[in-house]
Amino acid sequence: MNKVRFFSSALFAISFFGSLSAQEISFSGNLTAQAGAGLPSTHENKGHFLVGTTVFDSTIKSYTDDSTLFVNSQLVYDALAGQSPNGTESLVSNDGTFAFKLKEAYFDYNGGFYAIRAGRQIAAWGKADSIQIADILCPQDSSSLIAADYKESRLGIDALRLSFIQNSMQLDAYWIPFFTPSTLPLAKGNPLNPVFFPKSYDDYEIRYPKSWEEFELPEKKLSNSEYAVRLSSYFSKFDLSFYGFYGWEDTPFFEYQPDFTGESEDLDISGINISGSYKRLLMFGADAAIPFGAFVFRLETAFFPGRYIQTTEEYQEECMLSGSKVDSALKRNQIVGLLGFDWDAGAGWSIMAQYVADYAAGSVKELDRKRYVHQATLTLSKSLLNELLSLSVHSELDLCDYSSFIEPEADYSLTDSITVSLIGDFYLEGRDNKKGMYGIYRDLSCVTLKGKISF
Fold first, then answer.
1. DSSP class per residue in 206-245
2. Which of 320, 214, 318, 205 is nearest to 270 (CA)?
3. What CATH number should be reported for the domain holding residue 437?
4. pLDDT-above-70 percentage for the chain
5. Gyration radius of the chain's alpha carbons
6. Distances (CA, A) of 59 to 31, 98, 448
7. Best label site of 122, 167, 206, 411, fewest CB within 10 Å?
8. What are residue 257's DSSP bridge partners?
9. Cα end-to-end span (Å), the chain
10. Closest by alpha carbon to 353, among 380, 391, 390, 381?
C-alpha cells in the first residue's frame, strides 16, 4: 500500500508542477445514457433490463511546448447495480450502483529523439479489430459485454514508458510496477454474473469469491513488476511492429475445492469453494498492415511459450480423489494468428473481414479449451444522409461449433454533438445446440437504446 501511495503522490506532484507552467488547458467530455432489455427469444431474461447506465466521461489536457498533462475519468451510475471493482483501478459503491474510474492520468515529456510518459495510461497493441491477440498490455473490463465497445474496454496501467524516436521508427519500453487485473462481473446485479460464475456443478453449490480481497493477487513488490517493449516502423508500403511482454495473466485461474462435512469415513460434500490466483505470462508478437489500392491487409500473430491454461472441473476432481496435486492451470505452448482486410468500397461502404486461429500444443484433455480454435468476423458499414446516419453490422462466427454473435447498429446525429443509437446484440447457439464461444451468452441477447452528447 505504501508503494501505491508513493506512486500516486509522485504522479500528483509531477502533474501539479507541470500544470503551473501550462500554456493551454482544454476540457472536453461526453454524457452517455443507455438502456437495453432482453429479447423474447431469451429464457430467463425475457423483457428484463440488461443495460441501464449513465456515464459522465471527462478529459482535461494541459499543454506546454514540450510536455502534456492528460487526465481522463468516468463517473458511472448503474440502475442495475452491476458495477464491479477490480481491486485497484475503480471506486465502487457497496451496492454496485455508482463507480468512479480513473481511466488515464499521465504526464508526457517530449525531448525530440526521446519521450517519457509516467502515470496511468492506455495503449492499443496489434492490428486486430475487436479480437485480443497481441493486445495484452492493458487489461480489459470484462464486466460489460452488452452494447460494449472493445476499444473502450481497455483499462489503464500504472507505468513508466520510455520512447526513442528515429525517423520512421519508434521503440517503446514499459516498466509496470503495479499489476492491474481485468474487471470481473462480481456484482450480483450484473447480468454477466451468472454466466461467469455458475451457481452449481453436478448438483453441488459453487461458492465463488465475493470480493477482490478473496483473490490471490500478486504481491506489490519489485520482483512482481511487469515489463513490455514495442518496436514500430512506418514505411510508405507497409507498417510493421514487434512486441514483447513479461507480466501476469489479467484474469484469475480457478481452483475447485470440495467443502466436506461430517467426520472420518462418513464425509459428505456440502458444496464447492472456489479460489482464484494469477499466473505469470510471456508473449512475443508481431503485426503488419499493407495497403493495396482500396484495401488494407492486416496480419498479426502472438506466441505464448509455456502459457498457463485453465484446467477443467473434472480434471481437478480426479486429482483430488486420487490424492494427486490439484493444478488450476497447466502450461502449454500457444500460438494465435490473424489474417484480415479492410476495404473502402466507395459510396459510403466499408467492409472488414478477419480470420483468427488459436492453437495449443500438447495434451488438452485436462484443459478447459479445445486444441484448435478458430473464428471469423465480418463488419459491414454504410453512411447515409451526408453522413448523418451510419448503419453497421458486426458479426462473429465460431468455426468449431458454429455459434455466432451478430450486432446491428444504427447511429443518427441529431446535431454535431448529439447522437442517438439503436443497437442489437444477438448470441446464437451452434449446431446440435452446442454453446460454443457465443451460445453461452444466449440469454443476454437484447436491444439497447443509447444517447450521447459531447461537449
1. EE--SSGGGSBPPPSSGGG-EEEEEEEEE-SS-EEEEEEE
2. 205
3. 2.40.160.10
4. 93
5. 23
6. 12, 19, 26
7. 167
8. 273
9. 37
10. 380
Measured between alpha carbons, how far is 99 from 84 in angstroms, rounded to an integer? 8
* 417, amino acid identity: S
Count of structural domains within the chain: 1
Q: Residue 200: phi, psi to the nearest 5?
A: -150, 160
Helix/strand/coil (H/E/C) assignment for every residue in 311-327: ECHHHHHHHHHHCCCCC
Which segment of 143-147, 257-261, 294-298 scores lowest on mean pLDDT? 257-261
Look up residue 19 and give its DSSP letter.
H
Report the distance separating Cα 200 and Cα 215, nearest Å: 20
- The Cα–Cα gap between 394 and 347 comes to 19
Host domain of residue 22? 2-454
How many CB atoms sit inside 10 A of residue 333's CB?
Answer: 13
Record the pTM.
0.90
Amino acid at position 153, single letter:
S
HSE (CB half, 13 Å, CA atoms) of 287? Answer: 25
The answer for residues whose C-beta is within 8 angstroms of residue 96's C-beta and 6 or more apart is 78, 81, 82, 83, 84, 187, 188, 189, 190
- Provide the CA 185 distance to its chain's centre, in angstroms: 12
